[in-house]
Design brief:
- The structure is a single chain.
- The chain has 15 helices and 19 strands.
- Strands 17-15-10-18-19 form a five-stranded mixed sheet. It has a four-stranded antiparallel sheet with strand order 11-14-13-12, covered by helices on one side.
- It is globular, with a radius of gyration of 22 Å.
- It binds flavin-adenine dinucleotide.
């Protein structure tokens, strides 16, 4: 939405395509806040924000991207505020900022604990105000490639059925994450990595796919997120005996160490038998009822509804869950990909501000700052070029593929393969990774992909055929998961979210300070590397 608004304001003719109603996009679930160095709560600067982000990335975030990001973030926040985002305020009237993990200063701007919900409403209002055409409940399936350019998207119309091709001189992909590859995830059903897979299948490189962030506080058993904002407000993590175990892992930052560090600490405690039902406990009780009700009302409600626990009186059972994909479609700082006419922003993209580990609050900001930048550059290109040419053969091929899928009278149902994907990714490619398990997962994925060739769509109808779209989503998840595992096997070190304590327990800058690049070649993954762009921060040991 931020890209669409910017492109429209630059003078382009813009339409948005979304498989959901735009306000149901998963950004709406974001709770804790959005980072910008406003310096309202303590001294801060874009430079400090950049340093924290580089360090958080375990030194493989591209530092030029990070500097653009932290420099432009404050103005983007003020723009959102002027559009009507009702961020929480301090007594002096300035925007309030709360501490978040691994941040050198309290810089997370928030609207209580419903920040994403507020942003999405405000942006949608701006979309409506501009009369930007929205193709909602349109499922984007394939990119239109012609003349070495991206010239549109082939979609399935969910409401009416049938393929619809939308031409565009430029396309900005903003399709979000892929957390549904895992059984335990904070991500909604729609987070299936479709955009990453579309780009992959169009021959484009995906970058740093091995880095899936596990969030330390997802509720047991549902996997629903309890925001880092709780720890920002002072919540403790305790084991079954009430011990604050983070003092053994991150003596300075404690619960506010970076997410990879906290997730690993929790998993170590759970594996050592010091947890409760495969979880540890998030304790808010000492914050007091008033503060919990004022600052964290959404988290309290989630805990009461989904864990049966009122955090005013009892700690919440939490454990690490798949949360955020640091990798994605490789772009430059204007969102441009290797393919003329194709741009990407948000979680599906990898402009590489997060590297091996994202800091909480940096992702919403990334969607805004790089959404704006990619919208602007996509519009600039579109306004200076005139033609769109969509070969009929492309549409005919897509028709044939749908017919083939729908005409099968038997085969395996998608959900079975999807469940096995989620279960095995969690088991073999989770918080801690072992060589033999990753090799096993590679085999499992090959087998699941083989079975997928025979996937059976039972619903043959046109109207809201989610059976069909779920089958397509499954194919997307399997192929992007293979990229993750291949890149993970090749990275023989521990860095950020990629932790190999049993064979390569330390970071190896000499051999692995590079990006992993995965491309689709001959129905499989081709791996290569790309250099990390360093501007001023040389790698150092990462301690919290
Ligand atoms: C529970 C939760 C809490 C979070 N809290 C925070 C936080 O406090 N701060 C922070 O910085 N980050 C947070 N994050 C991360 C952050 O919210 C996300 O990374 C970010 O919002 C993703 O935004 P996006 O625009 O890239 O994708 P989304 O908001 O997921 O939007 C993707 C859009 O693409 C559309 N789409 C996808 N596939 C297709 C297709 N095939 N065809 C058509 N349309 C398609 C969807 O309909 C949707 O409109 C949180 C994440 C989760 C899961």
């Amino acid at each position: 939405m931020r890209a669409a608004i910017e492109a429209f304001d630059a003078g382009a003719d813009v339409a948005m395509i979304s498989k959901l109603h735009p306000t149901r996009s998963h950004s709406g679930a974001a709770e804790g806040g959005i980072n910008a160095a406003l310096g309202n709560a303590a001294d801060d600067s874009p430079e400090t924000h950049a340093y924290d982000t580089v360090k958080g990335s375990d030194y493989i975030g591209d530092q030029d991207s990070i500097e653009v990001f932290t420099r432009e973030a404050p103005d983007d926040i003020y723009q959102l505020e002027h559009w009507g985002a009702f961020f929480s305020r301090r007594d002096d009237g300035k925007l309030a900022q709360r501490p978040f993990g691994a941040a050198g200063s309290p810089r997370t701007v928030y609207a209580a604990d419903i920040t994403g919900h507020v942003l999405i409403q405000v942006l949608f209002e701006q979309v409506v105000k501009r009369d930007i055409k929205v193709y909602e409940e349109f499922f984007a399936w394939q990119l239109v490639l012609n003349d070495d350019r991206c010239q549109g998207v082939i979609c399935w119309d969910l409401l009416n059925g049938g393929l619809k091709t939308l031409g565009g001189k430029t396309v900005v992909m903003a399709t979000g994450g892929a957390g549904r590859q895992y059984r335990a995830t904070t991500n909604a059903y729609a987070c299936t990595g479709d955009g990453m897979a579309m780009a992959l299948h169009a021959g484009l490189p995906l970058k740093d796919m091995e880095f899936m962030q596990f969030h330390p506080t997802t509720m047991y058993p549902s996997g629903i997120l309890i925001t880092e904002g709780c720890r920002g407000e002072g919540a403790f993590l305790i084991d079954k005996d009430g011990e604050r175990f983070m003092k053994n892992y991150a003596p300075n930052a404690l619960e506010l160490a970076s997410r990879d560090v906290v997730s690993r600490s929790e998993q170590t405690e759970i594996d050592a038998g010091r947890g409760v039902n495969g979880s540890v406990l998030l304790d808010l009780r000492h914050l007091g009822a008033e503060r919990i009700i004022e600052r964290l009302p959404g988290s309290r409600e989630l805990a009461m509804t989904y864990a049966g626990v009122d955090p005013i009186y009892e700690p919440i059972p939490v454990r690490p869950g798949a949360h955020y994909h640091m990798g994605g479609i490789s772009t430059d700082t204007d969102g441009a990909t290797e393919l003329t006419g194709l741009y990407a922003a948000g979680e599906c993209a990898c402009v590489s501000v997060h590297g091996a580990n994202r800091l909480g609050g940096n992702s919403l900001m990334e969607t805004i700052t790089f959404g704006r930048r990619s919208g602007r550059s996509a519009a600039d290109w579109a306004l200076s070029h005139t033609t769109i040419d969509i070969p009929e053969s492309l549409e005919r091929d897509a028709e044939r593929q749908v017919k083939d899928l729908l005409s099968r009278e038997s085969g395996e149902r998608p959900w079975k393969i999807r469940d096995e994907l989620g279960e095995t990714m969690l088991e073999n490619f989770g918080v801690f990774r072992r060589e033999e398990k990753m090799l096993k997962q590679r085999e499992i994925l090959q087998e699941l992909r083989e079975r997928y060739r025979n996937v059976y769509v039972e619903d043959k109808g046109d109207v809201f055929n989610s059976d069909l779209t779920q089958a397509i989503e499954l194919g997307n998840m399997l192929d992007t998961a293979l990229c993750m595992v291949e890149a993970g096997i090749a990275r023989k070190e521990s860095r950020g979210a990629h932790s190999r304590p049993y064979d390569y327990p330390t970071r190896d800058d000499e051999n692995f300070m590079h990006h992993s690049i995965t491309r689709w070649r001959d129905g499989g993954v081709e791996l290569s590397t790309a250099p990390v762009r360093v501007t001023k921060w040389e790698p150092q040991e990462r301690k919290y």
